Please model this.
Amino acid sequence: MYTVKITLLTLLLLTGCAQHQIVNRANPSANWNADLYQCSQEAANAFPVLLSSTTQVDPTATAMRNYSNSMSRLNAQEALSSTNCISIAPNSINCTSTGTTAAPIVVQQSPVYRTTTSDANAANREQHTARCLASKGWNRELIRR
Model:
């Protein structure tokens, strides 16, 4: 079992460090930049940018804001009251509290919203560009050392 782990780790390290190159064996004189530009333009025409926004309540941010606000109100209320204790015997303490004893003020606050915007056609453009480059003979190959 130990040998298998070492072999797998070695294989992972070797492949993780492998370098690749993009080549066109079918047409060695092909111009990568020109083909990439042409394929990208085709993809942009076929799949234009399509922004999509979603707005959702962020429960973590809402909870954190509500907690912070409630602690501020609680601290302000505690400042209005005080308790004094005096030891009157070895096992006896006399405490006197003054000030407010009202329940904390609870204010329902609106939630915190997060808006996320993404391009719905981004993956389609990438796939179209990759297929177009492959059709022109471009491939990604492992560099042999």
In short: Residues 1-50+120-145 form one domain. The chain has two domains: 1-50+120-145, 58-115. The first strand starts at residue 20 and ends at 24. The beta strands are 20-24, 51-57, 82-89, 92-98, 113-119, 138-142.
